[in-house]
Amino acid sequence: MDIDLIPTPWQTVGPYFAISLAGGHSIEHIAGPNAKGERVKLMCAMFDGEGQGVDEALIEIWQANADGRYNHPDDTQDKPVDPDFLGFGRQATDENGICVFETIRPGRVPGPNGTMQAPHLALSVLARGILRRLPTRIYFAGDPANEKDPVLALVPKERRETLMAQPVANQPGAWRFDIHLSGANETVFFDV
Amino acid sequence: MILLPHTLSEITGPVYGHGDIQETDNDLTRQGEGEPIGERIIVTGRVVDDNGRPMPQTLIEIWQCNAAGRYRHKSDEHPAPLDPNFTGAGRTLTDAQGNYRFTTIRPGPYPWGNHPNAWRPAHIHFSLFGTAFATRLVTQMYFPGDPLFPFDPIMSSLPDEKARQRLISKFEMDLTQPDWALAFRFDIVLRGREATPFETK
User: Is B31 on the interface with A (CB under 8 A)?
Assistant: First the structure.
């Protein structure tokens, strides 16, 4: 193989990824109808620095099942895999910058140094004009486990709110997560 | 950006797509009723991690414009013809040695509104998941000798000439199929799970 072993660099996903990554290859159901756990209808809304919705952006989600087990061979925890739970979702945002996923609230998974992480979803944001994906996390506002989450602890207190999905009033099971690409409320993004 | 220590959430990632690869998904010249217009090419290569280990059974998804420089997408307003026999979408899994292979049509360059007389060099978009959330890669493959390289802000977003060279495929006479199609090699190195983010900048 005639190459060095330096990772291939990123390029922007551009505006036309839906040809291959969304459309018929969208995944809206991270959890199937019979998956174990508390149902979550998660609306993600993406905004630019002026507060305008960002359309044709790609949002990808990766999460553990209700028992805190990832659907992956490298998760060797002694916890059950859920046959009706995929753990992955991806969709393009609509003309208002919105997409909605059907899932369940994940269980807790281990963190560094014997800690336990609060329930969270790993999220990637990809869009035209963004050279590399922006990784972030979604936590659930009001979850008592957030107080001791080892990753939230790395985030300045005044910015932790940007990682919280908020319950939607009068709609049981509905949560909303706003992603701000820039501006005063810019979402905390991680170097993964 | 806040540096995220890798936990179970980052060292795992979606393992899917194995069940739904169709026979013509890696041959973009056989997805319509007839053959698409343009120069038929083979795009092939190997996917390894940054220790040189092959990445088998890895989903690769590609998308591209047609030979005239037009994407089959509602937002593409370039006044070039669509090709009824070309979707521009392909997907495949790497084999046990990390090898993949697509047959497609060489994409055309196309104008875009970035700056006056802006044209994208011909390219194919690649999307790979690897084995973990942390190994995700979305990139673009280019063709050797394209005169548009120096004018392209997307390629120039990589300040390092060596990094840009890694995105340019190589013409391969040995893999070129007589009386059929030229071949281009594009090898891909995914981050290892244990790599720190700084190494990929």
Answer: no
Give domain A17-53+64-180's CATH number out of 3.20.20.80, 2.60.130.10, 3.40.50.720, 3.40.190.10.
Answer: 2.60.130.10
Q: How far is A40 from chain B (nearest CA, A)?
A: 19
Q: Do B75 and A56 touch (CB under 8 A)?
A: yes
Size of interface A-B (CB pairs under 8 A): 177
Does A71 sit within 8 Å of B125, measured CB to CB?
no
Terminal alpha carbon distance of chain A: 28
User: Which tokens is B159 given?
Assistant: 């300040």
User: Torsions phi, psi of B48, nearest 5?
Assistant: -130, 165
Please give, one letter per residue, the 3-state secondary structure of A70-85.
Answer: CCCCCCCCCCCCCCCE
Q: What is the pLDDT of residues A105-127, one digit of tens each?
A: 999 999 999 999 999 999 999 99
Which ipTM value was assigned to this complex? Answer: 0.95
In order along its 192 residues, chain A shows pLDDT tens digits of: 545 799 999 999 999 999 999 988 999 999 999 999 999 999 999 999 999 999 999 999 999 999 999 999 999 999 999 999 999 999 999 999 999 999 999 999 999 999 999 999 999 999 999 999 999 999 999 999 999 999 999 999 999 999 999 999 999 999 999 999 999 999 999 999
Nearest-CA residue of chain A relative to B70? A16
Fold category of B29-200 in CATH? Protocatechuate 3,4-Dioxygenase, subunit A (2.60.130)
- Cβ distance of A62 and B1 shorter than 8 Å: no
Residue B100 is a catalytic residue: no
